[in-house]
């Protein structure tokens, strides 16, 4: 099995989409710089999410299965796709520097969210994005949009949509950042938990791989992820409510903003918390419990 070979060459598992492969190449370039002489082979794996199944962990489950079987040495995921609890036998060994965490607008004519015509048709399937868009522009005609980055943007180019909302980090990682017409601020649209963070997952008994990949971990990304994922877990982890969260370090403290809508978007709860960076997990749990308590009133 690959996991029992000397690690001069490793097998890396990821989804087969343009974005997944692109961000895997980015991470592997970082690992090669930190581990001179390292060679790798990418193994693309079809997931339940690629088949359109809307289940928790749909974009990671099959990749994790290959990792646990020893058919790959390393799995690279978008952390926002990962459930807050991992299966036994694996661990997240590193998180590189966080990419752009914000959402963005891709539009015909590169119009901003405020310059779109009244009643413009905007594509997104995320309730978190839909409800925040409606707060900014109640007049917009928002409809679901599916497919990969290229498929979605083509629907703008073909005039099916006037605009779509995407994660900016994805466009940057496939070198299409010029398509970003507008970057939403945190006050306009709070991002998904862990958006912009990549996770390097290995078997938890593979000490050689853990030592190798941990060289590129970024403590700011780890602290933010710990706070945001603890926040999400306190809200139920895989709950279907539209939730957003963003943590960052400011003036030596960790600041976490959270937002939660009810099922139909008619009610929203927002709150922030700050404290010691070493208390990232506690801060996340505290904020999650606060929003959950408000939601149940």
SSE inventory with pairings:
Blueprint: E1 9-14, H1 18-34, E2 39-44, H2 61-69, E3 74-78, E4 90-94, E5 103-107, E6 121-123, H3 127-136, E7 141-143, H4 149-157, E8 163-167, H5 168-173, E9 182-183, E10 198-203, H6 207-213, H7 219-234, E11 243-250, E12 253-261, E13 268-276, H8 280-296
Parallel strand pairs: 1-2, 1-3, 6-7, 6-8
Antiparallel strand pairs: 3-10, 4-10, 5-8, 5-9, 11-12, 12-13
Characterise the protein shown here.
By secondary structure, this protein is of the alpha/beta class. 31% of the residues lie in helices and 24% in strands. The chain has eight helices and 13 strands. The strands form three sheets. It has a five-stranded mixed β-sheet, sandwiched between helices. The protein has a five-stranded mixed β-sheet with strand order 7-6-8-5-9. It has a three-stranded antiparallel β-sheet with strand order 11-12-13, covered by helices on one side. 43% of the residues are buried.
> Largest beta sheet, briefly?
5 strands, mixed
State the share of residues found in helices, binned by percent.
Answer: 25-40%
The fraction of residues in strands falls at 15-25%
Spatial order of strands in the largest sheet: 2-1-3-10-4
Notable characteristics:
5-stranded mixed beta sheet; 297 residues; 31% helix
Outline of the structure:
The protein is α/β, with parallel strands linked by helices.
């Amino acid at each position: 099995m690959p996991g029992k070979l000397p690690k001069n060459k490793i097998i890396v598992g990821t989804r087969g989409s343009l974005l997944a492969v692109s961000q895997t190449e980015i991470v592997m370039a970082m690992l090669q710089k930190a581990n001179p002489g390292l060679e790798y082979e990418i193994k693309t794996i079809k997931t339940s999410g690629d088949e359109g199944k809307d289940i928790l962990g749909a974009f990671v489950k099959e990749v994790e299965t290959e990792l646990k079987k020893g058919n790959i040495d390393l799995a690279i995921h978008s952390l926002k796709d990962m459930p807050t609890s991992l299966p036994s036998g694996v661990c997240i060994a590193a998180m590189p520097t966080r990419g752009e965490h914000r959402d963005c607008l891709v539009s015909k004519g590169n119009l901003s969210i405020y310059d779109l015509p009244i009643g413009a048709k905007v594509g997104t399937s995320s309730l978190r994005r839909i409800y925040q868009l409606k707060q900014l522009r109640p007049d917009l005609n928002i409809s679901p949009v599916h497919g990969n980055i290229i498929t979605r943007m083509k629907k703008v180019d073909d005039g099916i949509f006037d605009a779509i909302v995407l994660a900016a980090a994805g466009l940057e990682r496939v070198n299409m950042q010029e398509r970003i017409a507008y970057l939403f601020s945190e006050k306009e649209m709070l991002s998904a938990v862990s958006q912009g963070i990549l996770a390097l997952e290995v078997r938890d008994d593979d000490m050689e791989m853990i030592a190798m990949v941990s060289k590129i971990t970024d403590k700011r990304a780890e602290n933010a992820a710990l706070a945001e994922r603890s926040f999400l877990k306190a809200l139920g982890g895989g709950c279907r409510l539209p939730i957003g969260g963003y943590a960052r370090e400011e003036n030596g403290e960790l600041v976490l903003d959270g937002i939660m809508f009810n099922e139909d978007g008619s009610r929203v709860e927002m709150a922030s918390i700050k404290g010691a960076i070493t208390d990232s997990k506690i801060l996340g749990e505290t904020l999650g419990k606060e929003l959950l308590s408000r939601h149940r009133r």
